[in-house]
Fold this sequence. Notes:
Shape: globular
Largest sheet: 2 strands, antiparallel
Strand content: under 5%
Distance between the termini: 48 Å
Strand order of the largest sheet: 1-2
Radius of gyration: 21 Å
Structural class: mainly alpha
Number of strands: 2
Amino acid sequence: MGKQLIYSVYFIMPILLLWGAKPQGKGQWNDSLSLSQTKAFQGFLTVAIMLHHIGQKTCASWLFPKSRIIPGLEFFVPIGYILVSFFLFFNGYGAYKSFHTKKNYLNGFVKKRILPVVLSLYSTTLIFFIARLLIGEKMDMPGALLYLSSIKLCNPNTWYVIVLPFFYLAFYLAFRFIKKDGLAVAATTAFVVAYILVGTSIDHNDYLIRGEWWWNCVHMFPVGILFAKYEDKIIPHLKKYYWVYAILAVAVLYPLYLYSVHAQDFFSYYGENFGAPDKVLRRRMTLLSQVFVTMDFVFASLLLGMKVKIGNRFLKFMGTITLEFYLIHGLFVELCDHTFDGGVKSPFPIKNVFLYVLVVFALGVPSAILLKKLHGLILGIGKKEKQPVELKKAS
């Protein structure tokens, strides 16, 4: 019976999302792009990402033999990149909207937008480094420096906060020095596309851009910028043909996902493993299938949000600590697994997956709160700071 409890998450998660939700009547619209809505949905997605990471540790069929698999979270295992795509969309959307609605937005941009993300990266890197030493991982000086520099990920979940500052920097430089808005958008988009092209040309490895999860949803950053640029035309059009788009977006989401699964089986991100001469082309063909999935997921989410206003105390709270929880919960995922990332035996393995989830969440939330307070003290962020670093939605 205890092992079956984990399946309750498939009932708990919809309740967390829809508790307190308010459907809009005929002719009424909710602003699904508002700060409160996007923060609430990101809070929900952060919990889903936690389940994704725990699922990888318990039932990823390509990582473990059948005897090692503990079922329950299979649904969450392959969809991490889809969940993160929503964050990247709003990173781009919020940056563009803020630039056009906030006076002198680029002044202090590096300090307010890039530095907090970099600080989050290295503060959690240091925490993971200490944890690795305490549980007995052996490393020489070069290995320690690779960890501390994040050239080799000490915190295995930090790819997002490594690439995001570079996207923000590209945005900053483009909009600072290019006067024509369209050219600045094009320049930022070109940077992200270049990053994807470089990423798809690199074989899987133990260092930076080590696998497809480093780039298979980053296209949503420029997509968010483009959506913001043409929002005044897009939203009225969506309202006019709402039910056509909403039904279509929801209806094709699962088929598109299945197509991406089959594309990954057919083309494979891992062409280097069997010496495929066209491995780079294979990666890009597989990526194309996942571009469709992520774009439709975000599109469907926005459309549904136009007719359903979500929001409850839990989602609002989680929306305030999304970045910190995303970065720190992995410590407890590793400590409660069979082995810590890197191969050392974990000190507190938990076999019951439901208990595993509860422990990670119960320890992750207060740790995220403390981490947020620490970052605030270091950066001198006071009560006037209203927006989390991972979402820059214009007011």
